[in-house]
Design a protein that fits this description.
The protein has about 375 residues and is α/β, with parallel strands linked by helices. About 35% of the residues lie in helices and about 20% in strands. It binds S-adenosylmethionine. The site of S-adenosylmethionine has 18 residues, from α4. InterPro entries: NDUFAF7, NDUFAF7_sf, SAM-dependent_MTases_sf.
């Protein structure tokens, strides 16, 4: 028998009552259960928490995204009202750094209203503390509640926490992957008895030919379509930054992180961050399907370099004490570099605009194109 948590007991009860539970439902409960969900009950970020995100690595990340937003404001004709919307803003660090960078542009800074879409009450309090005294900030439970108008939408490490379906290829077709109980009442993976009718018709051609045993992951496209529709109709741009792959493919990326290490997603319900890689190909196709224009993806390293992160690092280092200077250099390496712990190539950046915007800074610079080369 594995170590139990209150959520483990609750999920076991649900499986006994209703049978095997699809992976998406398990993930949803682990993250969003009204009482024990991981994102309902805690601040998971930073050295003391379970993982560190790019804005927590270095102020340069948020500053450059602030300047990126300024380029979108200009490209949309410098509107009198401009919204900065962030989905899943963590501790509010990125927004705070972005706003600080934007203070140097008073004509834009005066037009900004900030909208944070956040479900986590603990993080909302942190965001309030971080952003107190800055421009009008409003919190929303849902993206659809954000008032209309031209905007920039930020989503950093947001899509990876949205629940995924896992489908397993069998001779009989594609079956939903489920979680069930073994004889000792541990959670184990299984597959639904019957295939999902017609599922293969929804798959990209390469994935349709996958061999038995292959796993394909997909997320509902509700969120990306809502973002794309808003940008299509009300102008501005969205930037989605996350770990993931450039082309839809088979593979099992369902994972748990606790205390900065990988954990078993089935052994830590409600106690670890449970995520899966983002399929940027699927996001791009969904955004295009509603008539938005897609830019990239490019790697995070390439995006930040094109926005001038190296120059910004040098400027900060010139004024810094030697130990702070070392921190800036290691932040730069972590945000832009590859290898162990490096976010530069694992993370991708996708831009969404309306059809009238031909290029987005850092993403669709014509001379560089897409150099990600797959995930
Ligand atoms: C991995 S954290 C990323 C935080 C932040 N963007 C950063 O980079 O530091 C995920 C964020 O999304 C929020 N979140 C998770 N599920 C959400 C949902 N369904 N709606 C809105 N926010 C959500 C979490 O509370 C958290 O703020």
């Amino acid at each position: 028998m594995i170590e139990t948590s209150p959520l483990h007991t609750e999920i076991k009860r649900l499986i006994k009552a209703s049978g095997p539970m699809p992976v998406w439902r398990y993930m949803e409960l682990c993250l969003m259960h009204p009482e024990h969900g991981y994102y309902i009950s805690r601040d998971p970020l930073g050295r003391e928490g379970d993982f560190t995100t790019a804005p927590e690595v270095s102020q340069m990340f948020g500053e450059l995204l602030g300047l990126w937003a300024a380029s979108i404001w200009k490209a949309t004709g410098s509107p009198q009202q401009f919204r900065l919307i962030e989905l899943g803003p963590g501790r509010g660090t990125m927004m705070s750094d972005a706003l600080r960078a934007l203070r140097v542009l008073p004509p834009l800074y005066q037009t900004i209203s900030v909208h944070l879409v956040e479900v986590n009450p603990v993080l909302r309090e942190k965001q309030k503390a971080t952003l107190t005294g800055l421009r009008n900030v409003t919190w929303h439970d849902n993206f659809d509640d954000v008032p209309e108008g031209p905007s920039v939408i930020f989503a950093n490490e947001y899509f990876d926490v949205l629940p995924i379906h896992q489908m397993v290829r069998r001779e009989s077709g594609w079956h939903e992957r489920v979680i069930e109980l073994d004889e000792e009442e541990n959670f184990v993976y299984g597959t639904a008895a019957d295939p999902t009718p017609g599922f293969e018709l929804l798959l990209p051609p390469l994935v349709r030919a996958a061999p038995p045993g292959a796993i394909f992951e997909w997320r509902p496209n509700t969120e990306i379509m809502a973002i794309a529709r808003r940008i299509r109709d009300q102008h501005g741009a969205a930037v989605i930054i996350d770990y993931g792959h450039v082309r839809s493919d088979v593979g099992d990326t369902f994972q748990a992180i606790a205390r900065h290490s990988f954990a078993d997603p089935l052994k830590t319900p409600g106690l670890a961050d449970i995520t899966a890689h983002v399929d940027f190909d699927a996001l791009a196709r969904s955004a295009e399907a509603v008539g938005a224009r897609v830019h990239g993806p490019v790697t995070q390293g390439e995006f930040l370099q094109r926005l001038g992160i190296e120059t910004r690092a040098l400027t900060l280092m010139q004024k810094a004490a030697p130990d702070v200077s070392e921190d800036i250099a290691s932040g730069l390496k972590r945000l832009t570099g590859g290898g162990r712990g490096g976010m530069g190539s694992l993370f991708k950046v996708l831009g969404v605009s309306d059809q009238s915007t031909p290029a987005l800074a850092g993403i669709s610079d014509e001379h560089t194109g897409d150099k990600t080369g797959g995930a």
